[in-house]
Amino acid sequence: MAVVLAWREIVRGEAIMCWERRHERDSYFGRELVFGPEITRRSYRFLSVDVNGKAIVDLDVALGYNNRNMSHVLVWVKKTGDCVPDEAMSAGLDIVVDIVLYFIDHLVIEHGNKLDMGAFYYTYLDPPLVRRRFFHGEIRL
What we know:
By secondary structure, the chain is mainly β. The protein has one helix spanning 95-111; strands at 3-11, 14-21, 41-51, 54-66, 69-79, 115-125, 136-138.
């Protein structure tokens, strides 16, 4: 299994490591996709995230491109560990939100100046996770 470290961060003293399952990149994506007609190319990524060595969430990501520029990012979050609360416990301190936002930041770094005007991300949560704040928005450099 080809697993590559995509990024790592220290957040509030916790070591977060995001691993991309490279062998699955652009393989079958078993989720319903809602892309606009301006999307000319799609790419799929599958990632696993651990905190201090414990698996906590998987990310299934669909990227939509308008010509050569990244335009849409759809992220599905699936809980894989017991240390993740099903809902946000307090405002501003949510590991699930932190993980998604760091993923978006690293995606922007990877794509550099190849962002479409008005690029955005939207996050979906698989049960038992419930909706959190700030899980959609414009992607900025």
